[in-house]
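pasting for the record
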Amino acid sequence: MKKILCIAAHPDDEALGPGGTLIRHSDEGDEVYILIFSEGEEAKKYLEDMNPNRIKAAENWASETNTKIYKIAFYPDQQLDTVPQQQLVTEVENALESVKPDIVYIHNPSDINKDHELAAKASLAALRPMTFLNSMPEIRAFETPSSTDQTPNISGFIFQPNLYISVSNVWKKKIKALKNYNKELGNFPHPRSIKSLEALAIKRGAESGLKMAEAFFIIKKIIN
């Protein structure tokens, strides 16, 4: 059994990005914990887009996938840059000390979404080997549809995966659980539409010789 920690900026990031992989971890007997920085609603422009039940959606997703929400920190949505970095780093350090994970999933540090970028960089600061005694978890960056894919197609922004995990056997579970976040999904060809998510999984599968896959970038892996 392994302990897994997924660090997400907003509720739904854990489901849209590495959701299938987190389900696989859970199905295989691993303990999966999720740290979420923000409620994800304050920055929405239009009232009809607001989802007052978004926290409940996160709780329902975790319950359905047999994962656990470690904490929702309620920092301001799309304003993580107004929070002192040390505070964000300490938030992650506390989670690391409590969970003691073997694998940590974080946002792609070059995501176009600023909250994603700052959550990832705070995580990397907290995960420095000199601050994490006697345990050096593997760090995997995940892609988030409508954020990672919207970055400029130039060096320094491009997501370049080097780890592919099959999600064929859990795909139906992923889509069923995603319906808890129905208000965050879009209509095709929006990147967060079910059809686009399936197309991405098939594309990542085709890149790796799998039918359907989620892709990651291994930032650090230490073998003692």
